[in-house]
From TrEMBL:
Gene3D superfamilies assigned: 2,3-Dihydroxybiphenyl 1,2-Dioxygenase, domain 1
InterPro entries, sorted: Glyas_Bleomycin-R_OHBP_Dase, Glyas_Fos-R_dOase_dom, VOC_core
Keywords: Dioxygenase, Oxidoreductase
Superkingdom: Bacteria
Protein name: Catechol 2,3-dioxygenase
Molecular-function GO terms, alphabetical: dioxygenase activity
Domain VOC stretches: 7-121
Species lineage: Bacteria, Bacillati, Bacillota, Bacilli, Bacillales
Amino acid sequence: MPFVFEGVDHVQLAAPEGSENQARKFFAELLGMEEVEKPEALKKRGGVWFQCGIQQIHIGIEKDFSPAKKAHPALVVKNIDQLMSHLSKKEAAYQKDDKLPNAKRIYLEDPFGNRIEILEWQS
């Protein structure tokens, strides 16, 4: 084929109107992601963007918001045990899952009820 997919640029998650500060507390303060400034032409739509490795997570505002309970991003992390310790200290709920061979993984929800998977591949 004359075209090639090179990867994923970003994942967009929906959130209710006026929830940008909650998103900042979760993605920036709790998970340590850096906020990315949105282009001026897109700021009027609301929402907030975060850097996650070389990809981004975009939190988009949705008027009739409903959380994604099944569809979800899967984020790769180094030192998942340290992340779990950090989340426990911050009293952030998560669930361990051992069903994926060669991976340690957890699930948590963002403040809006969207499912987030975080995993570390084991060698």
